[in-house]
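#struct-pred

JT: dropping the chains for the assembly here, can someone run the whole complex?
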Amino acid sequence: MARFLVSRLAQSLLLLVLVSVIGFGVLHLAPGGPMAQFALVPGMSQAQLAEIAHAMGLDQPLPLQYWQWFSRLLVGDWGHSYRDAQPVLAVIAARLPATLELMGAAIALAVLTGVTVGVLGAVRRDSAFDVLSTAGAMVALSIPTFWFGLVTIYVFSVKLGWLPAGSRATVGDASLWGYVHHLIAPACVLALVEVAVWSRYMRSAMLDVIDQDFVRTARAKGLPERRVVLHHVLRNAWLPMITLAGLELPTLLGGALVTETVFTWPGMGRLFLDSLGYRDYPVVMGILMVSALLVLIGSLMADLVGAVVDPRVRLD
Amino acid sequence: MTDAPLAPPRRLAALLSRRPAAGRARSGALHRFLRHRLAVAGLAAIALMLLACWLGPLLIPYDQLFIDIRHRFAGPFAGPHVFGTDQLGRDLLVRLLMAGRISLTIGFAAMALSTAVGTAIGLVAGYRGGLVGAALMRCVDAVLCFPSVFLLLALAAFIRPNVVTITLIIAATGWMEVARVVQGQIRTLKARDFTLAAELMGASGFYVMTNELLRNAVGPIIVAATLTVARAILAEAYVSFLGYGIQAPVASWGNMLNNAQQYLGSAPWLAIFPGLMITVAVASFNFVGDGLRDALDARVEL
Amino acid sequence: MAGPVLEVRGLSVGFADGRRTVPAVHEVAFTLHPGETLALVGESGSGKSVTSLALMRLLPPAPRTRVTGAALLRGRDGTVHDLLALPDAAVRALRGDRIAMIFQEPMTSLNPVHRIGDQIAESVRFHRGLDRHAALKRAEGLIERVGIPDAARRLRAYPHELSGGMRQRVMIAMALACDPAVLIADEPTTALDVTVQSQILALLKGLQRETGMGLVFITHNLGVVAEIADRVMVMYAGRIVESGGVVPVMTAPRMPYTAGLIASVPRLDLKGGEMVSIPGTVPDPRAPPPGCAFAPRCPHRRPTPCDEAVPPLEAAGAGHDVRCRRWAEIAAAAAPRPALEARA
Amino acid sequence: MSQDHDEALPSARTQGPSRRRLLALGASAGALAFAGPLAGWVPGALAATPPTKPKGQAVIGLSQEPTVFQPLKLHIEVDEAVYMNLFGTLWRSNPDGSFAPDLAAEIPSVENGGISADGLAWRVKLRPDVKWHDGTPFTAEDVKYNLALLVDPKFLSGRRAGHDLLRDVTVVSPTEITWRMERPYAPYPAILSWTWFGPKHILEKEADINKPAFAQNPVGTGPFRWGERVPGDHITLKAYEGYHGPGPFLETLVIKYVPDLTVLYTQFQTGDIDYIGLQGITPDHYDEAKTLKGQVVQPVPKATIENLALNTGLPVFKDRAVREALYLAVDKKSIIEQLYYGLPVPTESYLPMQSWAFNPDLPAQSYDPEKAKATLDAAGWAPGPDGIRVKDGVRLEFTNSTTAGNHLREQAQQLLQQNWLEIGARMTISNLPPAVMWGDYWMLSKFESAMVGIDFMVGPDPDATDYFSSHAIAAKGGGGQNTTQFDSPEADALLKDGAATVDRAQRKAAYLKLQALTRRELPYLPLFQYAMVQGVKAGLEGYVPNINTQENCWNAGEWYWA
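RK: done, full complex below.
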């Protein structure tokens, strides 16, 4: 176990370094830059601009810039936002909870719905429900999330007026319902693709298990079908789902970005887009690192949890 | 040993299993694909879409770029413009079809590119193994660590958008899965005897890679490629929707949505038609990919 | 004895295949008395497992399979239930309680994610309404009873921590949890090492003596039959082709197929002896031969009468039935050890 | 300053007030901060009286997020929406263009002895009763500190131009400060009207003035004090009861960030937002918004002029005939009436028509492709085989750029593309992300032609040196935004005249000539002066649009609910 953890952590760190190199390269090699915002200041001369660029270290060779950024990162200094001069970690930390809330709600919704649909589909294989839910999942995977979000806003906020159009809460309304009310539409939109993924995986995992001998054994014991499905089939079928949860994290995070854009959700994805617009490199890099970190932690957690709940797996 | 003369009841298992009988495998991948009704429908839809996008505009008496500002926002299914007109009075149908050309072209081109790159990297990583393989696969992992949308936007924010650059950045964020699939496939294939046989017969590494391994990994690659087209179309739509993609006046399904967003209330068809086209196109490719997966018996999940 | 504990009448099973129904079992009938062991013998595809699953009502439900006939099980209170006619819930109440089953593959028949104690206790909890603690206590007793040492600790083990033989013992413990009147053992030893096989057989015999349950023992291995069975029923292509007491059937098989099976038993006394097997394979149930299903593989086949119609089951002695038109001819012509041996 | 009407652009637009002549019909002239309802703005309900104690909450919706809370630092337009309510200036601009004292006791002038006759010596008297939100008295030391910080080379200052002319800043007493100007600079009072001050006693203790901890909990002298900030979502300001001016009447002022204009409008519609700031309601929604019950919606003029900037440094645009012909071929009427729903006003000048220096007598453009063709023919631009005109090997072919994602502008671009193709000029659209567009591409004149909204004035002052002086061409090493590389000795002279005197009549004469000059030379093809559709919830009293400020929440301290 300890050896597994150490080697996994080492691998993850290596990955993080690679991630940072790729991210840094992509950002800094591209045209445009943070100087655009300074250039528009009245009375700013080219000489002053050069001074600012120098002060920000932007005039140094790229590898050196990377090294300076990275060595500071190692001692926990993620830098300051070019835009509002706040520490990058504080800027991200202020936005992360909103994203996690959205992702959490969506994943809860997706797992609940997806697992139910997948289980029912597998249990009633080839029934009308199964065929429809399988085709439906495929279509759900194909709908552009942003478009679905727009249509949702149009129908439920503009036309019907049932749900608020974006934002995380109405200012001044701190009630739980206020938050939930705002969360419904974006969480559903973000969950749509995940429901499809989860129901497809769940169904096929169930089918992998449902024909196995031990299920017949359980039936032979005279257990009610419900218990056979839930206690015996599902308990085995959801083990690979834990790994899936880890693997789905990047997709979910990406989906959260899209959803946040459409629903003006004050999360990390929105911050990412805004910061890209300003070429706020430290913040953009910070978000890339945080999301990579989340992804790595997610997959590590998935492995660990998988090992804990599956008696057959030993980590060493 | 006791089983030697009389094998245990495998056929019972086959009968009890409600899956399509394995015995029918011999009737071929094509047969299995055709049994997949949704996949066939998807294929038909793709064929229809290609036909419509490339031939349709020739039959419609409107130019996709001709602005007729006095007839903007004409509703669909009434008057000479079948699908209505857009915010500049251009015929929406012909724009949808021309946009289809762009979106599908990007989809296919990005697929070809990312499949080629992914296959090459997967091949080398899987065949060479060792340090090179590990290094390549760690790079794949690292790129996979970014939610692909983040990477896509980071790249899109910097390029001068046109069909070629958009294709390039979509391919740049879509080759990793193919690489993984190919690498995994190659590793299992490599463990099999025929690779060894080929090597013993003095075949070069390149020959083994291309002629033996690649040929045998072609099923999963095809499936992955099909699903990549679907992803590429979605990616193009999103980038263009945010305004970083295909630029006006050229239409793509994504940038048609970009312009339509604010007219959802007053001219909803401007957003609905392109959105439906994207959904239908992507779903078709997904269905075909799903059918191919079954037909080629390739377990690929993208 | 107070009459049979299980009586099967005219059991037929068909599987839906597209629009057709493929017959898998025809008109199987037998009775089982308490304490009696009935061996159901046949090659793969002969229908013996389907028969047992049909009795347990473990086959897929109606549109996929068609089951007709009756299977009368005597309940704890003496009332008789037709397993094939009861509603699902009522069958579930009997299954695992009055009639239990163990399967061929101990490696895969146990749920890998549950502790074996819980898996054994589960049945008791459901049928007897015991709480978890009491059920586990009983499971511990059962584990001891099936000869697993260190029962208290094993209770907490997962299946993958046990050997194949141990797992089969666990399966047996699980089946015996509610003291069933009938135990169906579907090839319980096939997947095990020979030494383990005989241990399991001995265990089953011992337990049967203790509990007086009726045992339906399904196997394709006649060597095992001789060790355990009171009566034998041989199946081929879904039909009973020979049945009777173990001694007459094993020593004087009347059906050439039975004779072939006996000949194919590897014999320890014949050192380096050649393995004997029946040529050919079981017919495709979708396209059965017109007459005797065994005719295509039978050394004694004559187009007439063998290929004319499916032969009826005829009495060949007291309680000894056989499904062969020519059994009398063959028996008269042949030596005690049938001619098949020569064909090796 | 270039101003864009979409999100996420790093334009540090710092424009200011100008004199509002035409709209100030019923305005109460004078020094009082409140300038009655404007003609053109109809308040939602009959005027009620403000409450005696701060009461209620108003939510201001903005499509960009204020993030810089140190008001002297480099910031963008949207940040000022916070400054206006949190911080104080020496004086501020009224809708009619006059100044009203805020931290100063009176507006310095030659008459009251505040400014010497030559415009070089300044003496500013401060109010004695102003306290920072933390209770510390505001004094002349604060002013001195702020003025010095603005030109501190180590500081990322929001504006140096103007402040760098100050010499010998002297604190005479806690309520009096004097300085000398290096040379007369007419726009300086205007610049001071949007120079917000921070507290010396806090800022001077900052470890790194460019990364101020102050921004976490800013302290000002405005009608509202800092409440809390939920990044990416909103900022809450609370009434400052010790405010020295009238108000505040609202207990809470919320500044909410909703990046999507459609969502912003929807939230306004549903009443979550009481007022939409910045670009307001998109023109697409104007017709619908007018019918809303419970919301008062009206177009309000802005000082921004929509232009086609032509890079005269390129061979194709060197020829005035080309610029003239392109202008003649612009179907301005369709752009304004169809695409912008008739909201903006066509213009020929770079100044808003409300400015005192506006020249109303410029020749009006009319859409005349035939005349455009004739002009090009006469100038020797002959159509090539593909219909595109050529002269001396130069094809009449160029790109046009703007910030990607600005829908209306992109539509206008496409219409122009069609207009120009008619006369044999091929324009290709090449839109860019803001950080690329407004970087070197724009500043160093690497674009060919661009579609930009620009407010050419310095605050309320019509001085446009930054845009038309040949010394302001960054591509040639100058400091400024003369990105069209307009190089005219005549313009240079006029600009110099206009800025060097405080005599308004003299200045106006120079600027009228300059406007005629730019109309003739056409470095920019002027399209229209923006009018924003602005709306407030009915019952919000005290809301007064002010063309002289960046943001119409300039006086939120005086808002109250009826």
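JT: nice. Chain A touches chain B through 49 residues (CB under 8 Å). DSSP finds 13 helices and no strands in chain A.
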